[in-house]
Design a protein that fits this description.
about 90% helix, about 0% strand, about 70 residues, mainly alpha
Length: about 70
């Protein structure tokens, strides 16, 4: 998924169900200068989603133990 986020940032958003953000990213990626910020944005968003899921899982585990 990280490779997709770097090579085709807009597709990364589409696959995660963020269609409107994906369209904005596609418009940004159309310009050659905008491709690098779009790729960085997609990778940062992917990492953020993974961290949110990890935090939610840890919170559930803590509630289950406590």
């Amino acid at each position: 998924m990280t490779l997709i986020a770097v090579l085709l940032p807009w597709l990364s958003f589409f696959l995660r169900g963020k269609i409107i953000i994906g369209l904005i990213c596609l418009i940004l990626q159309i310009t050659l200068i905008g491709w690098l910020p779009a790729a960085i944005w997609a990778v940062a968003s992917l990492v953020d989603d993974r961290n949110k899921r990890r935090i939610n899982r840890l919170e559930r585990d803590m509630h289950r133990i406590g």
